[in-house]
Amino acid sequence: MFYNLIYPLADVFGPFNLFRYLTFRSIAAFLTALVLSFLIGGPLIRWLRSKQRQGQPIRDDGPASHLTKKGTPTMGGLLILITLTVTTLLWADLTNRYVWIVLGLTLAFGAVGFWDDFLKVTKRNPKGVPGKIKLVISIVVAGLATWLIAQASPPGLRNMLALPFLKDVLVPLGFVGFVAFGVLVMVGASNAVNLTDGLDGLAIGPVIMASAVFGFIAYVVGNIILTNYLYLHHVPRSGELAVLLAALIGGGLGFLWFNAPPAMVFMGDTGSLAIGGALGAVAVVTKHEIVLAIVGGLFVLETVSVIVQVLSYRWTGRRVFRMAPLHHHFEQKGWAEPTIVVRFWIIAAILAMAGLATLKLR
Predict the structure, then answer these.
(1) In a domain, 219, yes or no
(2) How many domains does the chain have?
(3) Is the pTM of this model over 0.85?
(4) Cis peptide before 262, with omega less than 30 degrees from 0?
(5) Residues 213, 358, 102, CA angle at the centre, nearest 5°?
(6) Using one digit for the tens of pLDDT, what is the confidence trace for 56-104?
(7) Neighbouring residues of 189: CB distance < 8 A, sequence distance ≥ 6
(8) Residue pair 220/186 in contact by the 8 Å Cβ criterion
(9) Is 211 part of a structural domain of the chain?
(10) Residues whose CB falls within 8 Å of the CB of residue 278, separated by 6 or more in sequence, listed in order
(11) What angle separates helix 204-221 from helix 241-259, to the nearest 10 degrees?
């Protein structure tokens, strides 16, 4: 909003020219989201606690240490969604279609997560919305978002898959194939973050790192000079997503202030489904879907651990891990929760740097 209202006045007042720069607006978005989350975080948590007398239901088959968290409210993802939405509307170029597509998908996934959390809290049922229903809604939303992204993309990149490490290589997927692939990326990223969100601060740390990497990727891919230098595929106007991701980083850090061990609030599906979907959508826009699997490798590991556990038990009757997802396995081995969180953050940081390196390795 500020960009659309103030930048046209730059001829009248020179300093307003600052609003033209993505770097300025991204930094402003980060700071705005961070400050806003500090301002509303406390009152929001108190409100959630007043509405959720018993907090998020704790599964009986989970780690015994989690029983001490009984009474902690969930739906803390609302803090991220509120700050992300308000800040993006303030600092992003509202004529940019990519911003609206990614923000719309984020809020839609957040609504599904909110519904799931609401049923868990009100019905005292840890399962919430049936998995098939959540999956169908997510597929429909992601399919629509992928189609809109394809329509907004330049003709030369429409329905194409770019491969990392290879310059000027595009794999034509066709309309159906591209939509199916986009759905896989967005829904997969959404559920991967959701599976990782099992310990205080565990998911939001890697999300912040991945958002920083993809904020940089969006900025680079949207800049024709940088794409020519790095032999990347130029996606005009995709750089505006750096503002949205900067807002996500600021809101995520603000949420972490309240979610750090011992957590005052849990993210819930309200946040995890939404921010995972946002990362997936940005990856599809910037043609870096495969790089997301590297940058978000921790989320991939968590998801694979669940798949392996289920298939192994179904086929052999044996469990590969003491408990899945992977972070619960280490809990059962006796690792302290903060130890798991910090070590997983270190792994996420290494993978984020590895994903960032793909920009130069062509």
Answers:
(1) yes
(2) 1
(3) yes
(4) yes
(5) 40
(6) 666 555 555 555 567 789 999 999 999 999 999 999 999 999 999 999 9
(7) 276, 277, 279, 280, 283, 292, 296, 299
(8) no
(9) yes
(10) 102, 105, 106, 109, 244, 245, 248
(11) 170
